[in-house]
Design brief:
heterodimer, A: alpha/beta, TIM Barrel, 35% helix, globular, B: Rossmann fold, 4-stranded mixed sheet, 6 helices, 13 strands
Chain lengths: 257, 196
């Protein structure tokens, strides 16, 4: 049976892994390669490396670390951040990344999704979506340039309509980051993720809000997502991945042990 | 020497690194003479069957691969290319393993089939030595080879498809051993160590 995936996310800035609260106030967590190796050995199913500053300050990812990660880990990993062209994507994939994730560049040019699909195949095209529930309009809306608090910008897209659009254009997977929950560790936004689940047939990864192991069980059971992404609970060693998997397995969630 | 055929597709790198963790004698090449003289040959691939067959044709590698007598392991799309053909764009493939590749019969299931899955009906085949039925392997695909006499392990996703094929010296796995943790590494090790 297909296992639900546990995915540590490593936010990268200046060659270091960092973690901020609701996209602000980043603190350094550690070096990229040793952390990647540790997570891989602990039983992570996949890793995401996200250069959080890349899109917002107009530059691309510093790629020298991608190949060093590929050399040491034997699980899939995805690189996100400032990949705006086919050539940039090719370079990242050639260095050993399995997938590339695009967020703001897809909003700027939706056809990039289609072009990436045609050149590299659907399987390596992940679209990240930063979604915020706006109480005033009672609507889930997509934001862009979320890596920088000074540049963050609301788009015209309703979250679920954007999800349908990216599936149509040929994405292979969607990571939905629920910004209201990000970094505050009160649990995944299972209401939004359940609505998202109904909007797409693609693999769907939940992001934002994990604080304790019960939150993982809830999001798999209630929202039927394929994977759950988290950062600080793993970086701060508050949740041990192996123990989390044992807990999930005992709760009846199919995981790779 | 083990060689990885340079298919021009993404992700030769991760396979190369995975093999380098096991042996110091690996080369990525599209040189027919080197491929023909290698002791082990890997045929990797991601993307579409038509694109990959086009690359092999352009590089003049189709007859080279078809005439190999040493053990060859196709990986993911590389395995699919070993069959007679794929319905993905109605492409004729290398025709080295009987059978066809078609869209996964997984109606109502999410596609691509992406993530870690277990195998079923693992044969007593050297490729699976010291690999147990409980192990998970990493899959990413929307097309699969039908289960046939050449199937040495299958996988269930909506329906059953071939997770691994073997016919004469041509073997293949649908999953990515280079990205399947220690279980995947064991598969690569088994392939490097078989006595042909």
């Amino acid at each position: 049976m297909l296992a639900r995936r546990i995915i540590p996310c490593l936010d990268v800035r200046g060659g270091k892994v960092v973690k901020g609260v609701q996209f602000k106030d980043h603190e350094i967590v550690g070096d990229i390669v040793p952390l990647a190796e540790t997570y891989s050995q602990m039983g992570a199913d996949e890793l995401v490396f996200y250069d959080i500053t890349a899109s917002s300050d107009g530059r691309s990812v510093d790629r020298s670390w991608i190949q060093r990660i590929a050399e040491v880990i034997d699980i899939p990993f995805c690189v996100a951040g400032g990949i705006k062209t086919l050539d940039m994507a090719a370079e990242v994939l050639e260095m050993g990344a399995d997938k590339i994730s695009i967020n703001t560049p897809a909003l700027q040019d939706p056809y990039l999704i289609q072009e990436l699909n045609q050149r590299f195949g659907q399987q390596c095209v992940v679209v990240g979506i930063d979604s915020y529930f706006d109480e005033e309009s009672d609507e889930y809306k997509v934001y862009q340039y979320t890596g920088d608090v000074d540049k963050i910008q609301l788009t015209d897209w309703n979250t679920f309509e954007w999800m349908e659009e990216v599936q149509e254009l040929g994405a292979g997977e969607i990571v939905l980051n629920c910004m209201n929950q990000d970094g505050v560790r009160q649990g995944y936004d299972t209401i939004q993720l359940t609505m998202a689940r109904l909007s797409t047939d693609l693999p769907l990864i939940a992001s934002g809000g994990a604080g304790k192991r019960e939150h993982f069980e809830q999001v798999f059971r209630k929202s039927d997502v394929d994977g759950a992404l988290a950062a600080s609970v793993f970086h701060k060693r508050e949740i041990d991945i192996q123990e989390l998997k044992t807990y999930l397995s005992e709760s009846g969630v199919e995981v790779r042990n | 020497m083990s060689i990885i055929i340079d298919t021009g597709c993404a992700n030769l790198t991760s396979l190369k690194f995975a093999l380098e963790r096991l042996t110091n004698d690996v080369l990525v090449t599209d040189d027919p003479a080197i491929i023909s003289s290698a002791s082990r040959v890997f045929l990797p691939g991601v993307g579409s069957a038509g694109y990959a067959m086009g690359i092999l044709e352009q590089k003049g590698l189709i007859p080279v691969i078809q005439n190999l007598t040493q053990p060859l392991l196709g990986i993911c799309l590389g395995m699919q290319l070993l069959t007679s053909g794929s319905t993905e764009g109605d492409v004729a493939c290398l025709d080295l393993i009987p059978g066809q590749v078609q869209a996964l019969q997984a109606e109502g299931w999410r596609l691509p089939h992406m993530g870690w899955n277990t195998l079923t009906d693992i044969s007593d085949h050297p490729l699976f030595e010291d690999v147990s039925q409980n192990e998970y392997f990493y899959f990413v695909h929307s097309y699969g080879a039908e289960v046939s006499d050449s199937t040495i392990a299958s996988c269930e996703y909506g329906g059953a498809f071939s997770a691994a094929l073997a016919y004469k010296n041509f073997w293949g796995v649908q999953f990515h051993p280079e990205r399947s943790g220690s279980a995947g590494s064991q598969i690569l090790k088994n392939f490097l160590e078989i006595t042909s």
